[in-house]
Fold each of these.
Amino acid sequence: MNRKDFLAQVGLGAAALLVPACIGGLASCSKSSNNAPTNVDFTLDVGTGSLATNGGYLIHSGVLVARTTSGTFLAVSAACTHEGTNVNYNAGGNNFICPNHGAQFSNTGAVTKGPASKGLSQYKTTLTGTSLRVYS
Ligand code: FES
């Protein structure tokens, strides 16, 4: 076997190993993202900053925390389930919109417009004074 034949066989062998791994595990070939934080438990001071104003929001530890126009709080995973871009809170529509390809999610994180096909994870919130606990 000459060098050219050897490289052709090695190259084909490597490609043959890679293709079934991708076909067998389609999820690993997909661009979809599922990076929702787990075991979430943190506290924010909503007396100052963007959460002090109705309609404001921020992202902390991968969680988007929003204050609705009526003053209640929402918390969902920030990364769009399509390709991982952080979504924005749309106070006017009380929903979440991905700036990358336009996916939209309800105020509970459910998909209302693709291309995302999986919802955002929702987290609980409890307000005590100006201290907002966000948790799984
Ligand atoms: S990354 Fe959000 S719609 Fe594509």
Amino acid sequence: MIKNLFRISSTPGKTLLWLLLKKDLTGVKGDLGVDLAGGSMLNKCFFKTKRYVSVDINQIKLSEGMEVYPDAIAVNETIQNYLSGTTEKPNLLVCVQTFGTNMFFEHQETVEVIKNMSKTLSFDGSMTFNVGSFGDVDLVELKNKLSPFLKAQFQNVNFRFYGAMHKRVKLPRWKFTEDGIIRVENKTLNKIGVLKKAKHLVRSIFILGLAYTMYLLPPLRTAFGKKKLYLYCFCSGKLKEK
Ligand SMILES: C[S@@+](CC[C@H](N)C(=O)[O-])C[C@H]1O[C@@H](n2cnc3c(N)ncnc32)[C@H](O)[C@@H]1O
């Protein structure tokens, strides 16, 4: 039941991101919403646009998403190629858990991709993204660099910092091969018994509670995760190109 109402991840930091996304995307209507690096479409539940497109380089994830959401559109393409090639003007662009986070993304292209997202949007459109501190990127510096550009492009620009709140380094779940991206087998994920499921549920409720507390009390968002920071940004009211 909670799964239908909230997206809950293994860390409070990531779960806070889903709470922010849910709040910000609720008011964004329109025809087309594009989830850049949208993977298996786990964020589709936050989109209120008529059409939903997930663009990703991982075909397995896209196919898994299509099984759950047959009304979605899957595009097996890089974000960069999609943005430079599309003739559509989306009302909403989202890119989360990819910049400064995902092992397959070309992190040196983050600023350029964010600028291209803004250029691709329709008039009055909205966009949101987050950036992790992969490769020791200085997120305060990045915010200062992006801020003047975004403020010239949108009516409202809202940045927030939050802590990752985990130290664990996750083992890669995907790898590149000659046949494209394939899943790395993880034995512990194969069999989940009743006891483990119950433990998982209790843990999920605890994580959601912690994330919600951080959502309501902004100073707590960075209090525990100073070492590994994330930057979240929501921009709305795209202005006319000058
Ligand atoms: C951690 S997942 C996040 C998926 C989704 N945004 C979400 O929040 O559930 C990162 C995704 O980025 C995709 N990815 C990485 N670099 C990409 C690129 N240059 N173009 C398109 N997809 C990319 C990966 O295949 C992966 O599905």
